[in-house]
Amino acid sequence: MAEADPVTAAPTADPSVVSQSVDTIRTLAMDAVQRAGSGHPGTAMALAPVAYTLWMRHMRYSPGDPSWFGRDRFVLSAGHAAILQYAALHLTGYALPLEEIRRFRRAGSRTAGHPEHGLAAGVETTTGPLGQGVANSVGMAIAETHLAAVFNRRGHAIVDHRTYVICSDGDLMEGVTYEAASLAGHLGLGKLLWLYDDNRITIDGDSDLAFSEDVCGRFESLGWHVQRVDDANDLAALDAAIEEARTVEERPSLIIVRSHIGYGAPNKQDTAAAHGAPLGEEEIRLTKEAYGWPPEPPFLVPDAVRRHMGRQVARGEALAAEWAERFERYRAEHPELAEELERRVQSALPEAWDDDLPEFSPDDAPIATRAASGRVLGALAPRLPELIGGSADLSGSNNTLIDSPNFSRRSPEGRNLRWGIREHAMASIANGLMLHGAVRPYVATFFTFTDYARPAMRLAALMELPNIYVMTHDSIGLGADGPTHQPVEHLASFRAMPGVVVLRPGDPEETVHAWRVAIERSDGPTILVLTRQKVAHLARAAGAARDGVPRGGYVLRPESGDLRVVLLGSGSELQVAVEAAERLEAQGVPARVVSFPSWELFRAQTPEYRDQVLPPGVPRLAIEAGATLGWTEWVGTDGAVIGIDRFGQSASAADNFEHFGFTATALVERALARLAPRNSP
Q1: What is the number of other CB atoms lying within 10 angstroms of the CB of residue 37?
Q2: Which end of the chain is more exposed for a tag (fewer CB within 10 A), N or C?
Q3: Around 538, how many Cα atoms within 13 Å sit in the side-chain half-sphere?
Q4: Residue 638, Cβ neighbours under 10 Å: how many?
């Protein structure tokens, strides 16, 4: 169990002030949505008592220090009810002034239409796409459990906090929620609590239009502790249920809270009309009248409410100070552990983190870049103990197991996460791990199955989370599993996603430096796109890959004379480009080969560097076993691309590359055809 708070969780308050506080949250929600002209007032009105109970009675946080590591985490998975969270943050003293509530959903405000991490202090994660928040919370709970096992010592529970979630019918309908809840139950995450808003309304109408399952039975079958609160307005029942959940140490908890959407609205309570649109001025007037609330002014916060809920600032300062004192006692007895935890919380890389990276030589036998990646990860894991992750049931194929136990109930210190076949939850839980802090997640599957993980990967990009995605079996080269497993459009689609760096290394040495880029990134996710088939180590000038991969593109093989053509390639097709250049040179056509592992990194270089690598006016041809979409940015409208704009086939890698034209012969023919007009009199 968590240690008792050093400060009373809730100051003694007159019941009328408590009631006023709850109604303040409700009226702020109504007024903000009305002024914005859009939004979701009804859920916030229904759940105001839940928010009050959490923020005033149970959660440990410090409004003056929102990133205090010892805080409990809160996730509003029902992100459409954003104004509920904003109102609670404002009233409890976070740096979110009332003017920001008035500017809800306006350009430049910190109160976006759905909560966005990094805009408003106290918002732990970006939510809105339903199911993402609850899955994020599982990652936060895994991180807390793991770090407690690694860092806590007898008498020093320095990592000891909980993760609270408000979720909705819509969350529970999304498939990712089942994946995440299943894994949470399997792992026995006892410090995870979801409060499910059972208001029985969705945008289209009553939830029983499409949802009639036994939620209690479902979660009990998943290994969760389940309770019911029959009335969201019963603060005593809410309080007691949360207290009971806190005593359950071996299972995550779900509290099913029956609420009334648009509570108090005489014409819209318990209807879809209260869900996704302003109530209207007249309905707001009638609702405030039902609350015994003055109709004017809007955005009213009574002084008694501000004093009462504002006491959380002092409470939070005391909680953070008490934790800091405990940490100093911990540091005195365990200085190395304390230093290591501080390093991880600050996301700082340790000295010599890359000293043991493997080296490859042209004399080495060919290996797949997925295998080279496994060797790099194996070398990094002892140097970077914050690395935690794994594969969606493809560890052997993805080469992602490290020398550590599996994370489990019995071995919470383990760093190998066994996700099972849960790609979507895996990627979303990884977001929660990263947001929690002090761990660095990596996840893996076949590249084609990013189709299942993509929604969470997009949110990682939106939040600028430096997650690492190890995606193998990168093309038609994976072979006879056929087109269901052969990614074609995936490179183009991720290159279109803002904030993502895609790296498709061409040989083992580039794979080492692609990992180096991924580890050093701090402002967004990195996708390592790796081969199943073996590739040779390509000869190059010393240091070329080390310096060139972080730039996204570099001259791998210089031309022997006056440059006639530039060949660009990535992944296994880079070897085809090298062979083609050698054949062209033999025919008297000086050809340059440019390794092009990352469009995003190359685009970020200076124009001078880009022109140095890709001289203007020189014909360019690219070869890549993926969709041709986007390549004209690099080869120009008069260039050529050998790509694949159809689905593949079930055949060996060699047969597929021959069939679809990914050969040196085909590239040479295209190059000569492109140059032919220039040779004509």
Answers
A1: 11
A2: C
A3: 31
A4: 9
Look up the CATH number of domain 367-535: 3.40.50.970
Reported for 668-672, long-range contacts at CB under 8 A and 24+ positions apart, including other chains, are: 668/580, 668/583, 668/584, 668/587, 670/621, 670/640, 670/642, 671/565, 671/567, 671/580, 671/584, 671/589, 671/591, 671/619, 671/621, 672/584, 672/587, 672/589
551-679 shares the fold of 367-535: yes
Respond yes or no: is residue 423 known to be catalytic. yes
Query: Which residue is it, tokens 């440019």?
Result: 594
d(CA 194, CA 252): 8
CATH superfamily, with its number, for domain 37-318: Thiamin diphosphate (ThDP)-binding fold, Pyr/PP domains (3.40.50.970)
pTM of the predicted protein model = 0.97
Catalytic residue among 174, 179, 423, 509: 423
* Architecture of the structural domain at 551-679: 3-Layer(aba) Sandwich (3.40)
Whether 440 contacts 388, CB under 8 Å: yes
* pLDDT tens figures, 479-523: 999 999 999 999 999 999 999 999 999 999 999 999 999 999 999
Q: What is the mean pLDDT of the chain?
A: 96
pLDDT at 6 over 50: no
Cβ(183)–Cβ(419) under 8 Å?
yes
- The Cα 655–Cα 680 span in angstroms is 36
Pairing verdict, β 534-535 and 367-368: antiparallel
